[in-house]
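Section 5: illustrative case.
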């Protein structure tokens, strides 16, 4: 991921920076870092932010031609994989003979498209910044932890997880939330602080809906569901949380006994979550897990366009999960 702790010498020491990936926040950070370093060296640095349609054949030569005032420049080329073949030739030619006091920043999505330019930039010794798309909850959790560390602050594992649960998958929103918490809160940031700031009520997030449901507390789960929907939580996030909650019950119930740390390694869960799921398991049976997963799958299809009423589909799933959670207790 793009880091905030790179020195100006590193940022400007090479004439080309190559930011590779599809995570917009990290791509923008890579650009901001170079621009900030350039303006620290020269407050009058000229910054040009260009899209493929703005960089036509011959444009690069004009943009990199010597200036009367010998000013420093930063040229940012976004979506470099979409440049025309002729413009790619221009860029490759520039890579062979970069101009002093000009930093070229190429943003490339990676992959097969435009790979020739990617390879040429690497061969030319470009400084490379990885900006991968975060697709897994564990990656977002790692991102939040790193954000707190970068800002020199401490947050508990439960607080980091609660923030991911409450905010979702948008890294910009997660980064903004971390910044706000570190600015407003002294000392270690814990789950209660995150709850006050980002869930309004403890029941507001999709994962709190799931927690109440897998604990067999149907009425509270339905209340949490209605609150979540009224505050704008996407239905698909709620079905995802329900599925994760039920799968966690199934995984832990079929696992061998052991310490939370050992089970965490075996099941791919953090130790604190092992403790939480153990508390939620009472009343669950293998048949109940299967029934609940079927109900969640039906709801997922309903919220993704397979039904006329996503809210009703979610309510049915929440009730079914809560009922399954009580099956081993005689339905109480």
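Designed sequence:
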């Amino acid at each position: 991921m793009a880091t905030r702790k790179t020195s100006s010498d590193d940022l400007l020491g090479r004439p080309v920076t190559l930011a590779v990936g599809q995570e917009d926040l990290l791509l923008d950070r890579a650009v901001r870092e170079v621009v900030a370093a350039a303006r620290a060296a020269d407050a009058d640095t000229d910054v040009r932010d260009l899209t493929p349609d703005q960089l036509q054949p011959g444009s690069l030569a004009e943009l990199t031609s010597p200036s009367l005032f010998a000013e420093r420049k930063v040229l940012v080329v976004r979506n470099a994989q979409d440049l025309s073949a002729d413009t790619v030739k221009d860029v490759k030619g520039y890579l062979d003979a970069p101009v002093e006091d000009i930093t070229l920043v190429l943003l490339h999505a990676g992959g097969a498209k435009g790979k020739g330019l990617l390879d040429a930039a690497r061969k030319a010794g470009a400084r490379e910044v990885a900006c991968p798309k975060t697709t897994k909850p564990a990656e977002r959790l790692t991102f939040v932890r790193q954000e707190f560390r970068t800002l020199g602050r401490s947050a508990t594992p439960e607080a980091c997880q609660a923030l991911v649960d409450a905010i979702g998958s948008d890294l910009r929103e997660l980064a903004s939330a971390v910044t706000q918490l570190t600015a407003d809160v002294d000392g270690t940031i814990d789950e209660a602080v995150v709850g006050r700031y980002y869930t309004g009520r403890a029941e507001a997030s999709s994962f709190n809906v799931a927690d109440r449901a897998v604990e067999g507390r149907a009425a509270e789960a339905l209340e949490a569901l209605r609150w979540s929907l009224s505050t704008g939580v996407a239905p698909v996030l709620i079905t995802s949380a329900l599925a994760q909650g039920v799968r966690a019950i199934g995984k832990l119930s079929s696992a061998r006994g052991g310490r939370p740390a050992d089970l965490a390694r075996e099941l791919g869960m953090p130790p604190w979550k092992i403790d939480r799921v153990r508390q939620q398991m009472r009343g669950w049976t293998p048949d109940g897990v299967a029934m609940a997963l079927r109900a969640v799958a039906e709801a997922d299809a309903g919220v993704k366009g397979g039904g006329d009423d996503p809210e009703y589909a979610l309510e049915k799933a929440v009730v079914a999960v809560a009922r399954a959670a009580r099956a081993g207790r005689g339905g109480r």
